[in-house]
Amino acid sequence: MCGIIGYIGKECSANKIVLEGLKRLEYRGYDSVGVAAVDVQKRLVIKKDVGKIEEVHEKLNLLEPSSKITLGHCRWATHGAPTRENAHPHIDCKGNVAVVHNGVIENFLELKEELLEKGHRFASRTDTEVVAHLVEEGLDSGESLYNATVNALRRLKGSYALAIISTMEPDKIVCARNESPLVIGLSENSAFCASDIPAILPYTNKVIVLNNGEVAVLEAGKVEIKRVSDNMPVSREAKVIEWTIEQAEKQGYAHFMLKEIHEQPTSLRNALRLQEQYLDLITTFLDRGDKIFLLAAGTSHYACIAASYMFSKLARLATYPVISSEFIENYGDSLGIDTVVLAVSQSGETYDTLKAVDYARMKAATILGITNVVGSTLTRISRAYIVQQSGPEIGVAATKSYTAQLIVLAQLALKLAKIRGKLSQDEIDELKTNLYNIPDIVENILEKREEKVKEIAKKYAKENLFIFLGRGISTATALEGRLKLLEISYTPSLAYPAGESKHGPISVIEEGTPTIFICPNDETRKEIIGNIMEMKARGAKIISVCEEDDQKIKNLSDDIIEMPKQIHPILTPIPYIIPLQLLAYYIAVERGLDPDKPRNLAKSVTVP
Ligand code: AGP
To answer: Among candidates 217, 213, 183, which has minimal Cα distance to 198?
Structure first.
């Protein structure tokens, strides 16, 4: 998992642009960073080291040398530990070729062996370095940079977004894509390539998304795209991206995560403005399915768990939420032409999800997608898809993308209920009114409850174990609340359906263990009160997220976070997760951690 960027222009400002772009890509990886530039004397200058971008820049001054062509890379190690040697860019034996890469070259060991036998010298333990030496082979035999790159690409197995430069042709960047995202940006006098759009948006909003199996030659103000397999030219118009740069920056919040939590009223409103025809199409496919799987990883999986309750309760349709990495093993043999797979992925690039989707496609299943990224792999391999319109999410912890997924899934459940004739028109109208109120409700919670959550975070920040419990659809909220806390504050936490307590987990409760109950006023309320009593009797500190004026739950709780009344039970996962996102955020901040850059994690996991 890494971020790559390349820039070529007519002015000597390449390093500055690449450095700025790297800062916007840092969420993709931040264990090491590096740049490669061809200086005015046409020498290749490499600067790289372990550490975050600012640290490495302070040490090495990444703004120099003055150059018109530069590549940059921020790394999240996959092959080879985070060391200076393994940091990108990687070079060939002569120091004429530089390569940056995001992905995994699966056959690098055999290629490396072959290249070692030919006398190449390797400086790193990465899979990427073979690419520099393969290109060197081609250049040595008189090929152009383009041909040497294409011949190298044809030998690679695995995933890559690659950008390559050479001192022999210092007016070109050759870049290519296979299963790792890569976009190209164009302006009058320059050209860019990058792992995602925000990295280049300050400089251009004209963007071309490169497809798998394509290679592009970038020159100042010019791009030429071809297919790697047969060198056939590809003609694709640049799209004009409407995002503003501000959308991709922090807007005065201390962290992207907090900014993104606060963006939820807007992102929810956007997700309610989806085109009906796409919702109708997906609903029709879901209705035709014999077996329906909801496929996702992490937070997106928890959205699918909530969705399975929505589909069942509203449309009387049984669906199976499955963790992507378990899908093939668990259900692979049962798939067929009547299977429908609805894959949910914020990035649309999660390796586990795409692998499972590929398998299901091979078994003739119908693939549907929900994602936040236009042009992502998921959008290209789905029969029909919905883009949830959350805007770029920079914080590693998914927040606004989760609630947007939920509201998209709720719309699908509602439509499905309608076409299956499972709800009366009055019920549908009432639910629709409720649905369209959700962004205002979330806005209200953010305005009124943030201070209370901050207080609770302060009080419990030093605890070393948290328990999250919910019943019914709130199980999803408990699981997602736990994941938020776990991933950014590193606090060991448990979450499970509250009814499971007495089957084992209750034994971990000690005097003072903070136990968070998600208890909306739905059909599970009576039973969850029983669970609160069980925990209280064993000394747990009870923190309840419940409806305002729920006196009974208030009386049993040490701390409460009050939610507005009259939220339809099926929609409670959306507002009820907001205080838990804030709780995780403020506990991480109290502990002195950076919630945007949790250790060992990356925003989108595009490797096995
Ligand atoms: C969420 O906070 C995570 N960091 C992570 O679990 C994420 O949801 C998961 O990797 C799936 O990503 P996707 O939605 O882009 O497929």
So the answer is: 183
What burial class does residue 181 get, using C-beta atoms within 10 Å of its C-beta: 0-12 exposed, 13-18 middle, 19+ buried?
Answer: buried
Helix (H) or strand (E) holding 446: helix 425-460
Q: How far apart (Å, rounded) are the C-alpha atoms in residues 441 and 384?
A: 31
Q: How far is CA 540 from the centre of its chain?
A: 35
How many C-beta neighbours within 10 Å does residue 367 have?
21
Q: State residue 78's pLDDT score.
A: 61
- Looking at the domain that runs over 3-249, which CATH code has it been given? 3.60.20.10
Compute, in angstroms, the gap from residue 131 CA to the centroid of ligand 1.
Answer: 30
Instruction: Tell me the pLDDT band of 606, cut-offs 50, 70 and 90.
Output: confident
Instruction: Kindly report, residue by residue over 44-73, the tens digit of the pLDDT.
Output: 999 999 999 999 999 999 999 999 999 999
pLDDT in tens, 388-444: 888 778 899 999 999 999 999 999 999 999 999 999 999 999 999 999 999 999 999
The pLDDT, as a whole number, for residue 1 is 56
CB 33 within 8 A of CB 74: yes
What is the CATH number that goes with domain 266-590?
A: 3.40.50.10490
Q: Which pLDDT score is estimated for 27? A: 72
Res 564 pLDDT > 90: yes
- Look at residues 531, 546, 314, 482 and name the one whose alpha carbon lies nearest to residue 409: 314
Ligand 1 centroid to 297 CA: how many Å?
6
Residue 475, classed as helix, strand or coil, is helix
Is 374 a residue whose pLDDT tops 90? no
Q: Could you give phi then psi for residue 39, rounded to 5 degrees? A: -80, 180
Does 291 qualify as catalytic in the annotation? no
Q: Are strands 339-345 and 291-296 parallel, antiparallel or unpaired?
A: parallel
Ligand 1: which of 346, 401, 487 to mutate, most ligand atoms within 8 Å of CB?
346
Residue 17 CB–ligand 1 contact under 6 Å:
no
347 C-beta closer than 6 A to ligand 1? yes
Mean pLDDT in residue range 335-352:
96
Tell me the mean pLDDT in the region 226-232: 97
> Would you state the pLDDT for residue 175?
98
Q: What percentage of the chain reaches a pLDDT higher than 90?
A: 85
Instruction: Please work out whether the CB of residue 409 comes within 6 Å of at least one atom of ligand 1.
Output: no
Lowest mean pLDDT segment, chosen from 425-429, 486-490, 502-506, 594-598: 502-506
Distance of CA 585 to the CA centre of its chain: 18
Our separate counts of H helices and E strands in the chain read 18, 25
When the pLDDT of each residue in the chain is averaged and rounded to a whole number, the result is 94
Choosing from 47, 48, 415, 603, which is the catalytic residue?
603
Single out the catalytic residue among 2, 175, 193, 304. Answer: 2
CA of 596 to the centre of ligand 1 (A): 14
Atom of ligand 1 nearest to the CA of 298: 6
> Measured between alpha carbons, how far is 505 from 224 in angstroms, rounded to an integer?
59
Whether 603 is a known active-site residue: answer yes
**What residue ranges do the domains of the chain occupy?**
3-249, 266-590
Atom of ligand 1 nearest to the CA of 299: 8
Angle at 493 between CA 491 and CA 498, to 5 degrees: 160
